[in-house]
Amino acid sequence: MGKPAVIEVLTCGPMVTIQDGGRPGHLSQGLARGGAADRRALKEATALLGDAGAGIETPGSPLRLRCDGAVTISLTGAPMKATVGDRVLAWNTSQHLTAGDILDLRPTGTGVYSYVHVAGGFLTEAVMGSRAAHLIANIGAPLQAGDVLPCNASTGGARRVEAHARWGGGELRLVRTPQTRLFPPAVLDRFLTTRFIRDVRGNRQGVKLSMAGAGFATDGQLNLLSDFILPGDVQMTGDGIPYILGPECQTTGGYPRIGTVIEADLPRAMQAVPGAVLTFRFVTPAEARAARPGKPAVTPLIRDPGDMPDLLAQQLIGGVVSATGEET
């Protein structure tokens, strides 16, 4: 990394924000951690770049960025169609862009949250130790056309990361909360055998689930006292409809929480598109800890010659030796 560079937002869809790991440790002051909705994408970006810092999170919104300076970017999270002019960029990779390059991102319908990072992170204003926008707390704001994002110039190589699969819904593992035992056994059994559908209503606060049949309630839930709330909690509203709470969820609430989605599966919950089928299964705390994925594996990105418009400019032959052992 060297001299400063900037990336300008040329066009931008709704609710595109800068996100990083968020602001842990402020729950008692009424501030949720916030940060990236898909925290696994941050780890993948860090594996690609070494220092990913704060990046751009787009919830399926188109995005067009222009580089003013040489930068190394990474593309992680929900796959999007990424192009620079006639060049198609592979997803889950790091790529080197030069001054004047324009990066176009278009949604593909796979997953929800996509991420663009630069080596060293975007150097926007930090608030309480984080650059993450937290819209519920009125910290930061969505990006818009004309915004200029400072960063450091860099010359990193092209690499590919082995992405942790988390698209299309599926099974979510839960640990019990202090309120799980308040649900009657028959209600818990029905909850675990129900196929839920990710509703169209959802954002960084949480996603609504729909299902056939009656809702899920505890005995005497109207008498429950307000309690702390965490991302991943599966909270039942007064009519028994479950919501999976996200990074900008409230910090306290009186609705019962039937369980908490484990850290390893919360990205799958947040990346489920409307219509995706979700089911639940309880695991022990030890099983939840053991399920945490390891550090993402990274390998050099081998480009297909058919995708290289600059093929003739590449160094294709190197390390030539004489078959006879004589110097040439």
Rg, Cα atoms, Å = 23 Å
Range of helix content: under 10%
Question: Unreliable runs, pLDDT <50, ≥5 residues?
Answer: none
Distance between the termini: 39 Å
Shape: elongated
Number of domains: 2
Structural class: mainly beta
Our count of helices gives: 4
Average per-residue pLDDT, rounded, comes to: 90
Topology pattern, helix = H, strand = E? EEHEEEEEEEEEEEHEEEEEEEHEHE
Give the DSSP E fraction (strand runs of 2 or more residues).
Answer: 25-35%
Strand order of the largest sheet: 2-3-10-5-8-12-22
Major pleated sheet:
7 strands, antiparallel
Number of strands: 22
List the main descriptive attributes of the protein structure presented here.
single chain; Cyclophilin; ATP binding; elongated; ATP-binding; mainly beta; about 325 residues; seven-stranded mixed beta barrel; seven-stranded antiparallel β-sheet
Description of the structure:
Pfam families: CT_A_B. By secondary structure, this protein is mainly β. It has four helices and 22 strands. The strands form four sheets. Strands 2-3-10-5-8-12-22 form a seven-stranded antiparallel β-sheet, with helices on one face. Strand 17 and strand 18 form a beta hairpin.
